[in-house]
Amino acid sequence: ILKQAFLALLLLLATPVTWAAAAVPPEITGVHQRLSARLAPPVRAWVSQQAVIARQAPPEAAATLTGNAARQRFRGQPLTPQLLDTLVFLVLYESAELEALPTRAPAAARRGPSSELTGIQLQSMMDRRSKTVALLSNLAKKMSTTQDTLVQNLK
Asked: pTM of the predicted model, to two decimals?
């Protein structure tokens, strides 16, 4: 499933950037739903809280910041690299979903005809979302590679 999700994300990233093209593919959504269904309520709340924080961070730093936050939050508990990647994936997915939510126009855009400013902000939001989806893709690939390695070791 993760390989299919990764391939869908690659196809998504290969298409020209438009608002519709920035949607998270259904395969990735399925992986997110399957993983988040296993979360305890306090962990689910932490993931939602971290998604808001990750949305405010630069996309390039969101995964690192989320990983550091997970290590701090779950200090003293066995946190394997696979579990850490899963938590980062869940946070980044929810962050990407938050990026898709419509936001109110900024005060400067409401005051006058500054459609250029609004267009720049829309492009910025689309770029952020695209970068977040790319981060999701990289994490899905890493998780898939880890699973493939585990299966090979079992054979």
From this structure: 0.63
